[in-house]
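#structure-requests
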Amino acid sequence: MDDYRSYFPPASGVNTGKPAPDESNNPPGNRERRRARTLREFGTLSIPEAKSNIHALVIVGQIEGHVELPNQNKTTKYEHILPQLVALEQHKDIEGIMIILNTVGGDVEAGLAIAEMISSLSKPTVSLVLGGGHSIGVPIAVAARRSFIAETASMTIHPIRITGQILTVPQTFEYLEKMQDRVVRFVVRHSQTSEERFRELMFRTGELARDIGTVLIGREAVECGLIDEVGGIGMALQTLERLIEDDKARKGAPLQ
């Protein structure tokens, strides 16, 4: 899909590094083609512009790591997300970040890299799981300061798996165990669940036909301590705005 910024002006307050196109100087034919492409890609002739101090970071499909996936796969590339996070940390007009997830998981190291970047941001962050936040999507969801999950959304917790040819030697299993420990420690450190509880969910049998693990639906993810609240975009935005105000108040408070 073409980058929408090539035919749709960016929202006010969003720094793209390029000046917004001047529609008045465009020939009518170019404007019509642009409107047609917008309709084809987004199902509407125009997208509302709004100046906002909040940036929405969307992570969908499969998180792509060091291996490029086939074209028919909808992916989120970590080499796209990491520079965005650096830019958001530096952007003076962006005061809060909303992470929206609907992912099946993907590359473990790429997912952990994204999660570590989110958790280390100095600006307030809120995550919202819509549809699914499976596998390595779990650490990304809990990396934000406050996390939400839709009532019908699901999260799958399972041990690390690898595909392709591997060497069945002790070193391989030790490597997988260490990688799994990295995921467990990160999730436990950034959520309200315990290591024992998370590992019990990870290795539970009988819930998936061809796998071991656990599927949590909406409130179940909250009850086990992984996610903070059940809610949607309204609650998530209200929480993020409150975190932004608290952050401003803390930074503006006089030194004791």
